[in-house]
Description:
- By secondary structure, the protein is mainly β.
- The chain has one helix and nine strands.
Amino acid sequence: MHPLVHHSNRHLLSLHSQQESVRSIKVSDISVDGLSKRWGLSPRCYARLVVDTESQETEIADRSTAPKWQRAFYFNTADSAILDLRIYQKHTKEKDEFLGGMRDDISKLLADQSESVERGFP
Length: 122
C-alpha cells in the first residue's frame, strides 16, 4: 500500500478580493497514512505547501507512520495556480528526505465539492 496524502477540502475556501482572478484560500487538516518505519523507528515528518512562489511549512510531527497537522495555511493566489504539497522526513545531520506529495490545480480543488482530497504517492 502506498502512503496517502489527505487534506480537508471543506477548508479550501474561495473568497473574492478586489481582483476577480485572485482568491484567498485556506488549506488545513493535512495528514499522511502508511509511512514506513526505518531502523525500527517511525519518521519525524513535516509538510511543505507551495502556491506560486509562496512556501509555508508545518511543524515537525512526533514520530508517526500517520502524521497529522491540524493547522491552517492561507494563500492569496490566482485560480490558475498549483497547490504543491510535499512531505519530508526530518534529519538532524543530513539533508531532509523527500517522501512524496501531491500537486493539484487550485481551480479543480475549489470545484470539488467533497469533504477531503486524497492522493497516493509512491
